[in-house]
Design brief:
Length: 118
């Protein structure tokens, strides 16, 4: 009998707590719109992006993952800088190949024996 009385009182307490939570637990208006988080540590604008910039880059979370605009902006910036670096490397390699060819040219035209220069 004591156990039955304890269960009835516990059930009454649970029902009362749920009723109070539902009835007096808040306003019926929806939650206010939260301000969207923006990227806190953007990529530097005044210099090329470095390895440390990429390693410290963190995107804020959005309700469904990451903010697509932030990710798209960062990836677009990285793609442009990589394309610029690739073009610069290709130009430097071309200039180096030209310099090597120009340096090798006089050796081919130069006679091997000093006596043949007369």
């Amino acid at each position: 009998m004591v156990m039955f009385l304890f269960l009835v009182v516990a059930l009454a307490v649970v029902v009362a707590a749920v009723t109070l939570a539902v009835v007096g637990g808040g306003e019926s208006a929806p939650l206010p719109e939260a301000a969207p988080e923006r990227l806190q540590d953007p990529l530097p604008e005044d210099r090329p992006v470095g390895r440390a910039d990429i390693e410290t880059l963190r995107f804020p979370l959005a309700p469904r993952g990451y903010r697509m605009a932030d990710v798209d902006d960062a990836l677009g910036r990285l793609a442009a800088e990589l394309a610029e670096r690739d073009a610069r490397i290709a130009g430097l390699e071309s200039a180096l190949a030209g310099a090597r060819a120009a340096a090798a040219q006089p050796r081919q035209n130069k006679p091997e024996h000093p006596e043949d220069q007369r």
